[in-house]
Protein: DUF4112 domain-containing protein
Organism: Methylobacterium currus
Amino acid sequence: MARLDLLAHLLDTAILLPGNRRIGLDAIVGLIPVIGDAITTAISSYIVWEARRLGAPRWLIARMAANVAIDGVVGAVPLIGDLFDAAFKANRRNVQLLRRHLERSGALKPSVIDVTATRID
């Protein structure tokens, strides 16, 4: 899951823009006509492939594939698609769907913050 989280972060939220808005490599590489969207769709498909390998049910794989397809098809439209890529964040959605499924099935412990508190006087 850590590898998928990192990949989703790089693709969707790695770069902080002014105004506290985040974009990722998906939006930047998607600026390259045709090839850029094909590359990012292929990389996004890796997350779906890993979900299948982790035993996700078919309905979840279909939902994740639909997110990737929407991102790829709409992202291919010039200008509007680039804005959509920056806003939709299909990879973050897919990793969140997979994490929720794995937590519910007991294959993954729920995310918790593990820290030690120190009193400062």
